Amino acid sequence: MTPETTDTYTNPVLNADWSDPDVVRVGDDFYLTASSFGRVPGLPLLHSRDLVNWTLVGHALSRLEPADAFAAPRHDCGVWAPSLRHHAGRFWIFWGDPDHGIFQVNAPEIRGPWTAPHLVKAGKGLIDACPLWDEETGEAYLVHAWARSRSGVKNRLTGHRMRPDATGLLDEGKVIVDADRIPGWFTLEGPKLYKHDGRFWILAPAGGVETGWQGAFRSRDFFGPYEERVVLEQRDTEVNGPHQGGWVRTAGGEDWFLHFQQRGAYGRVVHLQPMTWPEGGWPVLGDDGAPVTEHARPGLPPQPQAAPATDDDFPGGRFGRQWSWTANPRDGWATRHSGDGLRLACVRSADAHDLRRLPNVLTQRLPGVPSVVEVDLRLDGEEPGARAGLAVLGDAYRWIGLQRDAEGTVRLVHRFAETVAEAERDADRPRPAPEGRVRLRIETVPGARCRFSYDLGEGFRPTGREFAATPWRWVGALLGLFALAPVGEGHAGTATFTRFRIGPR
Fold first, then answer.
1. What are the residues whose beta carbons fall under 8 Å from the beta carbon of 459, sequence distance 6 or more?
2. How many CB atoms lie under 10 A from the CB of residue 456?
3. What angle do CA 25, 28, 34 make, to 5 degrees?
4. Which residues form the Beta-xylosidase C-terminal Concanavalin A-like domain (predicted)?
5. Strand 494-504 and strand 478-485: pairing?
6. How many Å apart are CA 12 and CA 147, to the nearest integer?
C-alpha cells in the first residue's frame, strides 16, 4: 500500500459499528477502543498514526465477567462505552456493565498482557465510566452516567474521588451534573473527563443516539458547579445525532474529536472532527459546531491506507482478530489443524431453531458500505439436522447454508426469523447439495438490504427475497458463521469454512 497523498479525508473514518469510541495518544501513536457489549473477546483495540487509517491490533478482554452471566448471548449487555487512558506508564480501560458495575483493566502495552477485570464500583445502572488522574495535584477522579432501565435514574452524572491506583473509590459519590435542571436536555450520558486550562471538562452527549448532540461542561472544581454548552449538532448536515466520543491532541498541538453516528443496521460509525480551543473559551468542533463530511487531514506524516481486517483464510483453523463469539466461548467449538479453514463443531443445542440464542456464532461487523460477502462451506456432520451457514444476525436474522436431512442428504437451505418470531422458517425451498459443498454469497445494497445467493458448481444463483438487516437494541447487525445440531448423544460432526472474503459491490 502506498502512503496517502490526498490532502483531505472523508467521514466516516471507520465505516462499521465501532460504537462509543474513545481515543488516546501515546508518543506518535493513537489508540482507540469501543463498546463490545456481549461479544467475546471484548474491548477492541485499534491503532493509527494519522487518525484516519486504523487497524485492529487486539482486544483487552478475553472473557466477560462474571463468566456465568455471559455463558449465553446477552447482545445488549456487557461492555458499555469504555474510556481509554494512559497513566503511570500503563494503558487503562474503564467501562460500565449496567447489570454489575464499573470495571477496569490495565496493561503495560496496548497488546497486553491485560489484567483480569477489576470491579471498581458494584451496582446496577452504572454506565459510561471515565477516570482522570490530575497530574498537578496527584488526585484521581471518576465520573459515570446512569441507565434508567436498571437504576430508575438517568440524565445525570455522578463524580467520585478515586484511589490513584484505581482499585477503588474514596467516597460515596455526588451528582455533579443534573441535566433535569437544564432546560431542553435529556438522556445525558457517555461522559469523558479532562483537565484543560485550569478547569475540569466533561465532554458528554445528550438527546439520544439518533437525534442528540455533543455537550461540553466546565468547572474550576471537580464537584462543580458546571456550566454547559452544545458544541456539536446536526444542523443542516446529513450526520444525525453526532455525539459521544473522545478528544485527542497530536504531538504538534492539533486537537481532534472522534465520535459516532447511529446508522441503523450498520451500527455506530466513527467520524473525525477538527477541534479548536479558543483561549479561555469553549471548544469548537467541526465546522463551527456542525459535523464535517470532508476536511483537511491532520498535520501528521502520510500513512498507508488501512482499515480493520475483514477477509480470512483461517490458517491452521485460527480465526482473525475481527471475529468475536456471541458469548463466552467453550473449548471444542473451533478445532486447530494443519491446513487452512475454520473447522467448527456442530454444537448440539436445544436452541438450534433460533440463532439469536446461540453462544457459538462467530461474528464480525456488517460493512457500512455496499459489499459482497462470500465464503466456502463444507458440511461433514453426519447427524440428521446438522447444519452450518453464513448469517446476517440482528433482532431479525437470515442465513444460508447446508443441512443434512433425515435421509442423510445434504441440502442447500435458506432460513429466516422475524423480530417477534421464536423460531426460524424457510425463506426458499431446500435444494440438494450432492457433494456437501457450496460457496455462499450475501450482497448488501444501500439501506443494509441483503441479497442471498449460492454456487453449487454451476455459478451463483439467487435464493429468497431481499432481506432488510436489522440491528439489536444498541448493536449493529452482524455477519455470522455457525455450525450446530439438534440435541442428542455423541459428536455431531463438523463444518469447514474457507476463503472468507468481503469486497466492494
1. none
2. 16
3. 35
4. 312-501
5. unpaired
6. 28
Report the DSSP pairing between strands 118-122 and 55-61: unpaired
Q: What is the largest CA-CA distance in the chain?
A: 77
Q: 381 has which bridge partners?
A: none
Q: What pLDDT shows up at residue 3?
A: 65
Q: What is the mean pLDDT of residues 480-505?
A: 96
Can you tell me the distance from the alpha carbon of 151 to that of 3, in angstroms, rounded to the nearest whole number? 49
Give per-residue pLDDT as tens, 178-202.
999 999 999 999 999 999 999 999 9
What pLDDT band is residue 4 in, cutting at 50, 70 and 90?
Answer: low
Give the separation between CA 433 and CA 443, rounded to whole angstroms: 21
Give me the sign of the Cα torsion angle 406, 410, 414, 417: positive
The pTM score is 0.97
- Please state, as a whole number, how many other Cβ atoms lie within 10 Å of the Cβ of residue 457: 10
403 Rama sector, left if φ>0, alpha if ψ -120 to 50, beta otherwise: beta
Say which residues have a Cβ less than 8 Å from residue 473's Cβ, sequence separation at least 6. 75, 76, 395
175: Cβ contacts below 8 Å, ≥ 6 apart: 156, 157, 158, 159
% of the chain at pLDDT higher than 90:
96
pLDDT band with cut points at 50, 70 and 90 for residue 339:
confident
Q: How far is CA 339 from CA 19, 33, 314, 380, 495, in A?
A: 35, 33, 9, 16, 14
**How confident is the prediction for the chain on average, in pLDDT?**
96
